[in-house]
Amino acid sequence: MRVQPLKAKSILATGLLSLLIGTVVSYTNNDTNLGIKNEQQASYLLQAKNMDVLHNALKKVRITPSHELSIINSYAVTVSDSQLKALKEYGDFKVTKNSAVKLSGSIASASLEQVSVVNKIVNATSVHQTSNYGAGITMAFLDTGLRQMNGLRSDVYGLQKTYGTYDAINNKPLNNDNEINGHGTHVSSIAGNSELDIHGKPMGVAPNARMVGIKAFDFEGKGTYADIIRGIDWALQYKDRLNIRVLNMSFSGPPRSYYWDDPLNQAVMKAWQNGIVVVASAGNKGPDPMSIGVPGNNPYIITVGAMTDNYTPDDRSDDKLTSFSSAGPTVEGFVKPDLVAPGGHMRGLLPANTRLARSHPEAHDGDKYFTMSGTSQATAVVTGVVALMLSNDPTLTPDDVKCRLVTTAQPAVLKDGTPAYSVFQQGAGLVNAQSALKSQQTQCANQALDIQKDLTGEQHFGGPAAMSENGEFYIVDENGVMLNDGGFIWRDGGFIWRDGGFIWRDNFAWGDGGFIWRDGGFIWRDSAYSWNDGGFIWRDGFSNTDGGFIWRDGGFIWRDSIESEVAVNRWVSQE
Q: β-strand 162-167 against 100-103: which pairing, if any?
């Protein structure tokens, strides 16, 4: 049963509880119906093209689902092997383990000085000077929850801006979420903190944007596919009512299938298709190549890696990519991350009684600020930039937003003009809020992809990345010819360390071929290969791109164990 909204005079004034009270339905499972009390059970996602057929099958086997996930035509169930076998007798259902998920984040020592350096680095300060603080746009944070602290409760003018939190784990609304973990609160404050620094400038990137929390991760920062997908489904249901235009996903899980077969990625694609800009973290498992997690491996959405100012905010010459930032390409051959943003020693709001603050007291200032590093925080920076863009022009589609972000990003280049990092490490480069707002670019993102055909299974896609027999990653054009060096070739699959000595450059030309970099950014043009179902042969044991997909060491091993976790990104050292 879907949650049906009630009429409310002012959702901001009364909160989510008044909007949803009396409308949330909980499911409980009667697992004694088939006499299987002593059988071990596991959680699965069942998908079918026709949910009525699946619903009838569940009724016949007398199984009550724990989650209804209509966004992907799915139910989540906890069943035994015998129950699962009985269900399959009533239809051809796709069965996926309801995998666990973790969040992203890292730790650092605290600093008592409250100065907003992030907005300066990404040129958001220039946007603020035009009185654009992200008003009129709602940012949703799918995370561990959202505490309504000062700075998150109201905007820079003192007006209330936070709706509350939808608890996707327990399927209920919360006006005031007493978040225990703290990750969600910290991440959301990077994007939307309205408190002023010592110079009178807002700490957050989009301090006047409205906010809503979607709790899908528990106090340990762990979640399941079912809870996360239910959270995405909820965001889609209330997109128009709350004007949810951007969804922040600061977590990562190991890829278990191709992006189009992954239920979480299917839900993410539905959100994107329906007008929600999805911003996801690359993950904190770098510097190894092919370390991008789910949902960051989704080719449609905006995937964010992390850079750091190296503790010298006024000296850009020693900036560098963080060593923990996950790198591409994806197994399907797509270039990821799409761009990078500040993610080192990020200062944000966090109550002292949260799990994170208690676990790492050295990173807390003793009041309400906490310092963390990670692609989680970098993702929140870009989410804030997206809110500024949509506040400036609400007509932008998700593809338009991605197009303008990547075509205005600033790649890191050496003094001789060559790239400081591979495209698989920095994507298009450092996000630039002011340039993204000024851009008039359109039709330069996801142009070779078709999200509708991807979702229906009619057609799927591979990217332009390949790997040679000696372990070099490179880009090929539409004819399969390797593009020249200059950021496209990643030798030995290794991470290039750059401790300064480069600049973030505008108007950098990466070269031509299957796609073009323009104005410091990346424009896809015929850079994705399409595949019809049954139109190609999967082969193990090759190290190049046979049909456009990257394999190594006898084939890629998918991690499909129920024990594999999707969670907030793992802790990393401060950079």
A: unpaired
* Total Cβ atoms within 10 A of residue 567: 23
Among all chains, which residue has been given the structure tokens 């697992």?
31
Query: For residues 100 and 102, what is the distance between their CA atoms, to the nearest angstrom?
Result: 7
143 in catalytic set: yes
Any idea which residue has 């009619």 for tokens? 458
Q: Please, are residues 205 and 128 in contact by the beta-carbon 8 Å criterion? A: no
Cα(394)–Cα(160) distance, integer angstroms = 21
The DSSP 8-state label assigned to residue 380 in this structure reads H
Which one from 143, 155, 399, 519 is the annotated catalytic residue? 143
Residue that the structure tokens 């027999």 belong to: 469
Residues in the chain: 575
Does the CA dihedral 390-301-106-343 come out positive or negative? negative
**Alpha helices, DSSP H only, in 239-338?**
239-242, 263-273
Catalytic residue among 67, 183, 345, 360: 183
For the chain, the first-to-last Cα distance in angstroms comes to 46
Alpha helix (H) ranges present in 353-397? 355-359, 375-392
pLDDT in tens, 211-246: 999 999 999 888 999 999 999 999 999 999 999 999
Helix, strand, coil share of the chain (percent; to 5): 25, 20, 55
Nearest residue to 100 via CA among 569, 560, 565: 565
Q: Encoding tokens for residue 66?
A: 């724990």
DSSP letters for 483-499: PPSSSS-BGGGPPPP--
- Of the candidates 189, 376, 391, 527, the residue annotated as catalytic is 376
Q: What is the pLDDT of residues 360-372, one digit of tens each?
A: 888 888 889 999 9
67 catalytically annotated: no
Distance (Å, whole) CA 11 – CA 205? 24
d(CA 506, CA 428): 11
This prediction has a pTM of 0.83
Contact call for residues 567 and 101 (beta carbons, < 8 A): yes
Q: Of 88-97, 114-123, 153-162, 512-521, where does mean pLDDT reach its minimum?
A: 512-521
Q: Which two tokens stand for residue 6?
A: 């009630």
Residue given tokens 């959702």 in the structure block:
11
The reply to whether 218 belongs to the active site is no
Checking if the pLDDT of 438 tops 60, the result is: yes
The dihedrals phi and psi of 425, each to the nearest 5 degrees, come to -105, -45
CA 396 to chain CA centroid, nearest Å: 19
